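FAQ

Q: What does a record look like?
A: Structure on top, sequence underneath. For example:
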């Protein structure tokens, strides 16, 4: 609960800012192009430092890195709240990204070392997955309430009490641990290459939405990112103690599930980000109504994560559950291809929200199980940082690609004389189609690359003990056939 409280604070901050952007722009005098840096400054620092923070957790102790991240994130949140200029807010958001990367990079690694493999770990990952996925939609609602009732400053101030409570609880409840020591893997050159390479990738992606994919800035930063990635690969192959031990990627399920996560998150943003714009710009929902519209997603994720995900993963295996969840997410995005200009929430959007809640609630716990399946006690922090990094890079790719193509299609429709509301709706539909293509690619990749993990007899027996007597008896009869 302490780890998830810290994660919730970080996840909420990722979406709570979206709703308040218009108010921030008006109050601090941001231009339309510079406003994106309220998000980009956070994303670049956060995505770029996740892998390094995860490895540092293995070397100096995950508890130390988690506590340092909480402190920095809480202080940076207070600085964001008292910001009086655009430059001050962007700088504080960059510090927030550093703190968020330090804290979140090691959380999943701490979970898999605190809980033994099997059902207890699956339960813990289910709670973590609920916080990580449902927190995004809760942030939309909370951001609307705080901005309307108080001011945009409070979307940052709300992190301070949460951070202080989480810090006090972590100091008391998380046992101190010794890391491997800096000598076991203090690859300074590798750390610099990996961090700058990922930052360059994220900078290229998030900057392309405003500068254009063919602009000199995008092409230049893209070329730099490719060069840095090439240097990183060479360093990982030659270093004695690389920042990212290649044994982590030797597992087909670990490498494949990281790619699946990247594609899945890129597609899901089509519903969260552009869905919120459709509600506000086309259907004229206010901030609170927009947040409430996404509530079924949080409810669905909560029910699946807490009640069913652990049993499903234990009974069917993580791969099967992931395939089912991705199928539901794909169905939800395909439904959005038909949203009309005069759409009605109950008819045109609620079915998608329900499918997304169930699909994400099934997909994320199964995916987290696969992502950490090859981690050991010595590199669980690195594996956790890698998992968070692919999530953030996938989000950056999805946000940039979907918003860019949505805006371009909207402009093309408007140039042909299509009314503004219809043109905007057409742009959203086009982007939803691209999002569906991302999720379809994730589904195909998961089906082809990932391999089923064996369900042990102990796990089957533990599952049967939780069933009703009659059901448990039936499970005992055909359990061998299912195994």
């Amino acid at each position: 609960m302490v780890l998830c409280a810290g994660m919730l604070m970080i996840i909420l901050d990722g979406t709570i800012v979206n709703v308040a952007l218009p108010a921030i722009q008006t109050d601090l005098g941001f231009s339309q192009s510079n406003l994106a840096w309220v998000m980009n400054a956070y994303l670049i620092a956060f995505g770029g430092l996740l892998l390094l923070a995860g490895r540092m957790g293995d070397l100096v102790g995950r508890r130390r890195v988690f506590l340092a991240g909480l402190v920095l994130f809480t202080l940076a949140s207070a600085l964001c709240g008292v910001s009086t200029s655009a430059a001050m807010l962007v700088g504080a958001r960059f510090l927030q990204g550093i703190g968020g990367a330090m804290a979140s990079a090691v959380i999943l690694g701490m979970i898999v070392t605190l809980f033994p493999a099997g059902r207890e770990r699956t339960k813990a990952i289910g709670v973590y997955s609920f916080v990580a996925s449902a927190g995004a939609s809760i942030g939309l609602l909370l951001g609307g309430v705080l901005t309307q009732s108080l001011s945009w400053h409070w979307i940052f101030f709300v992190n301070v009490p949460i951070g202080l409570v989480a810090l006090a609880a972590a100091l008391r409840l998380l046992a101190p641990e010794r890391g491997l020591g800096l000598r076991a893997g203090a690859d300074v050159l590798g750390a610099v290459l990996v961090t700058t390479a990922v930052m360059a990738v994220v900078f290229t992606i998030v900057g392309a939405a405003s500068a254009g994919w063919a602009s000199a800035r995008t092409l230049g930063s893209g070329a730099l990112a490719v060069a840095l990635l090439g240097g990183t690969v060479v360093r990982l192959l030659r270093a004695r103690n690389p920042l990212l031990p290649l044994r982590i990627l030797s597992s087909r399920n670990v490498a494949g599930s990281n790619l699946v996560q990247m594609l899945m998150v890129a597609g899901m943003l089509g519903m969260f980000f552009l869905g919120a714009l459709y509600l506000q710009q086309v259907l004229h929902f206010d901030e609170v109504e927009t947040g409430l519209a996404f509530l079924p997603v949080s409810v669905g994720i909560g029910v699946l994560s807490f009640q069913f995900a652990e049993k499903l993963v234990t009974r069917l295996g993580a791969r099967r559950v992931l395939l089912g969840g991705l199928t539901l997410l794909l169905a939800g995005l395909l439904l959005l291809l038909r949203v009309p200009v005069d759409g009605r929430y109950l008819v045109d959007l609620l079915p998608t929200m329900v499918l997304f809640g169930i699909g994400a609630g099934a997909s994320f716990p199964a995916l987290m199980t696969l992502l950490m399946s090859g981690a050991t006690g010595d590199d669980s922090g690195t594996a956790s940082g890698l998992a968070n990094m692919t999530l953030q890079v996938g989000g950056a790719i999805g946000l940039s690609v979907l918003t860019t193509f949505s805006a371009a299609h909207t402009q093309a429709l408007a140039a042909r004389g299509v009314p503004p509301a219809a043109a905007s709706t057409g742009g959203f539909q086009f982007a939803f189609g691209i999002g569906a293509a991302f999720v379809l690619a994730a589904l195909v990749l998961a089906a082809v690359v990932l391999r089923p993990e064996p369900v042990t007899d102990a796990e089957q027996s533990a599952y049967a003990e939780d069933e009703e007597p009659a059901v448990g008896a039936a499970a005992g009869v055909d359990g061998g056939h299912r195994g």
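Q: Is there anything notable about this one?
A: The longest helix spans residues 380-415.
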